[in-house]
Design a protein that fits this description.
Ferritin_actino (chains A, B); Ferritin-like_SF (chains A, B); 10 helices; Hydroxylase for synthesis of 2-methylthio-cis-ribozeatin in tRNA (chains A, B); mainly alpha; homodimer; Ferritin-like (chains A, B); Ferritin
Chain lengths: 217, 217
């Protein structure tokens, strides 16, 4: 498929800056939430995921530098949406932290794959290399499944939690789009409003399949 | 130089386990101490250093796995010494946090280089690849030098702080050696007690040269 967006579209810098702040915010949140881990293995798994976020950050920083953009001032405008998402979804248990990690990682992967398809090759390469290191969160599946197998109450509670995570993510994504015209233009250039609606529908569908994977559906 | 220690020396597993816990402890401490950063750039620099620690951890985990050793149970016995070091050297300002990062990184690098020389090639390769990613802490130099150039009081205070860091590190290293015979045998096999004394002397000397680099000497 030919790229639908040109490499100099101003929305690309904004997209990279948004993703970069997302990586830094995820790094600090994962590390904070890892304190709830019941053992050293849990803390190490969370630390490894957090470290992967910083590796992604460095890919985005280098890509922005090649485009002549200084990452730190560019990304601060996305701080409030991402910090709000994390603040509104602060887990109260280790299982909630695990589900948040898994759902967040999966939503990011969906998002990266969707946008890579319509971008010029050099941009798609950056997006895919950021994506390529996700998947650390598979350790979550066995721990969550074990916890909900014996407890309908736990399953019900975590299913509600995961719906809330998706809802808050969509809410914050809409705030970001409402405030940043270049990003809206980028999404429009990549297929327009109907594609955006389709995207949110697909996000809902893949979210449901992940809930099944975790034993929460 | 021919290796002085054979690849199946039991101290090697212990050494890797000790280093591995050191990486995980450093990850969490750097991330915690990064909260003192006055700005986003500082937080990102600390996060990047923390992420590098987890990359080192993964090298050590894989090396131990190849030797048939499960890393998590092996490393817990080194938790108290490393947690004590960090607890006794909790910084109270961002500048103290920066100096701690730099001194800790430098001491680890010295240590890695010293031991790599006497190890068999496969072990030395692991040690050197863990070392190869250090050096993130150069960002510290310009910030500390700027702070102490205008303030003798700040220079004096940070010089005392850095001596305390070295002292606590040596104290904890001696506790670890006192409790783990395999590690003592490893050091002995690598040249004996006089080499160990030389090592602590060299550590002191390189520490002094680093204090000059930071403008603290």
């Amino acid at each position: 498929m030919a790229p639908l967006v040109s490499a100099d579209h101003p929305g690309i810098n904004e997209l990279f800056a948004l993703l970069a702040y997302g990586e830094v915010a995820a790094f600090y949140r994962l590390t904070e939430e890892a304190k709830m881990a019941p053992n050293l293995s849990g803390r190490i798994n969370m630390a490894a995921m957090a470290a992967a976020e910083m590796n992604h950050y460095e890919v985005l920083r280098d890509a922005l530098a090649r485009r002549g953009v200084d990452i730190v001032p560019s990304m601060t405008k996305y701080a409030s949406a991402l910090e709000n998402y994390h603040r509104l979804t602060t887990p109260s248990t280790w299982l909630e932290a695990l589900v948040k990690t898994f759902v967040g990682d999966a939503m990011a992967a969906d998002f990266y794959l969707e946008i890579a398809d319509v971008m010029p090759a050099e941009v798609a390469d950056v997006v895919r290399s950021v994506l390529s290191e996700t998947g650390h969160s598979q350790f979550v599946v066995s721990e969550v499944r074990a916890a909900v197998t014996g407890s309908d109450r736990q399953r019900h509670r975590l299913a509600l939690w995961s719906r809330r995570l998706l809802g808050e993510a969509i809410t914050q994504a809409q705030f970001v789009l409402a405030e940043h015209d270049e990003l809206v233009e980028l999404v429009m250039a990549g297929g327009g409003l109907s594609q955006m609606t389709d995207f949110f529908d697909r996000l809902q569908n893949t979210h449901n399949s992940r809930m099944q994977e975790l034993g929460l559906a």
